[in-house]
Write a structure and sequence with these properties.
By secondary structure, the protein is an alpha/beta fold. It folds into two domains: 168 residues, D-Maltodextrin-Binding Protein, domain 2, CATH 3.40.190.150; 147 residues, Periplasmic binding protein-like II (D-Maltodextrin-Binding Protein, domain 2, 3-Layer(aba) Sandwich). Helix content is 42%, strand content 15%. It has 13 helices and eleven strands. β1, α2 and β2 form a beta-alpha-beta unit. α9 crosses α13.
């Protein structure tokens, strides 16, 4: 036998293994296509229509089915409540564990789970099956937007001891709006009163327009449906930004919260606040779903985020698309869980016991 040549029986053995592997893969693809064909896959959005989470979900829904085996129909259902915790609990505890339901939830759901606190949360961080995020905030910024006729219109006025207080809208203990407002109040000592009870960001920004509130926290991309807020002559101005390591080029004069932190504890709290913004538009699915369907959902999710038609629509709507995987989300959650204990304790107290102003 020539040196390096394989015996005929060995070649036949490896050929058979490859054949069986190919057959197994084909069988799995067929099984996935059989399951999803003719089926409705539901995207449950944890906020009402018209906000940033809803906007992303509806653009995703128009392309997602084409990247799943069997090309199922994708249906969006809005399920607002408790800063999207209602939707997260539904997908975790109520929805069928078959890989046909996913949820667009607030980034703060990950924070609350990682800190081990959220009122009425029915799961732990390790229970969440993440598909990925559509945005890692590469081209976005989460800002405190203040009416130009508010009692305090500059940072100096807002930090003045005993000065006028701003009414900032909130929606629930797990929401980004609530958490940012409270961290700005406690870590940066801004004169802020959180006004809870709004169903979602769209309702909060509408309340600011009506002068029912003085301010709101929102991402630039979430204001795609409210372009007047981004205009130089618009009704509001941004005062503080989070979720970035550098100032946003659209608002170079708006400081980052990390620049304003007075001490190490405040910096650590802001770091914990900001980590979830790297998973700005996260999606989860039901625990216990068959692994091959979870894998198909994850693959289709990232494929949709790279779809030219999806990207063209996102660009038209001026929303950030900078996706990464569910595994990367899990890594960031681990970073939150290993943050300094004192900062985590302050964040738990802040999120769980901070007083709010009645509407």
């Amino acid at each position: 036998m020539m040196a390096g040549a394989l015996p005929r029986a060995c070649v036949a053995y490896w050929a058979a293994l490859l054949a069986f592997g190919t057959i197994d893969a084909l069988a799995q693809d067929t099984s996935l296509a059989d399951f999803y064909h003719g089926r409705q896959v539901q995207i449950v959005v944890g906020y009402g229509a018209g906000g940033g989470y809803d906007l992303y979900a509806r653009i995703l829904a128009r392309r997602f089915g084409a990247h799943l085996p069997g090309r199922p129909t994708i249906v969006v259902q809005n399920m607002p409540g408790a800063g999207s915790l209602r939707a997260a609990n539904f997908v975790h505890s109520v929805a069928a564990k078959d890989g046909a339901t996913i949820a667009a939830v607030d980034r703060q759901v990950a924070l609350s789970a990682a800190l081990g606190y959220a009122e009425n949360m029915q799961f732990k961080s390790q229970d969440i099956v993440w598909l990925g995020t559509l945005s890692s905030y590469a081209d976005d910024s989460y800002n405190l937007w203040v009416r130009k006729d508010a009692p305090s219109r500059t940072l100096d006025e807002l930090r003045l001891p005993g000065g006028p207080r701003l009414k900032v809208g909130g929606s629930g203990v797990s929401s980004g709006a609530d958490t940012m407002a409270l961290v700005m109040r406690d870590a940066l000592k801004l004169n802020i009163d959180l006004v809870k009870g709004y169903p979602d960001g769209a309702a909060i920004t509408l309340a600011v327009d009506r002068n029912e509130l003085h301010a709101a926290t929102a991402g630039i991309s979430a204001l795609a449906t409210r372009p007047q807020w981004l205009a130089a002559d618009g009704p509001v101005r941004p005062l503080v930004a989070v979720g970035r390591t550098t100032r946003h080029p659209m608002f170079p004069d708006v400081p980052l919260a990390s620049e304003l932190a007075p001490d190490e504890l405040a910096r650590a709290m802001i770091r914990i606040l900001e980590l979830p913004y790297q998973i700005a538009r996260p999606y989860m699915t039901t625990p216990g779903a068959p692994p091959e369907r979870v894998a198909a959902l994850r693959k289709a999710f990232l494929a949709t985020a790279a779809d030219p038609a999806f990207l063209a629509e996102a660009q038209k709507m001026k929303i950030d698309v900078s996706p990464f995987s569910g595994d990367e989300i899990s890594r960031l959650i681990m970073e939150i869980e290993t943050s300094p204990e004192e900062a985590k304790t302050h964040m738990r107290t802040l999120m769980g016991a901070a007083p709010a102003v009645a509407r």
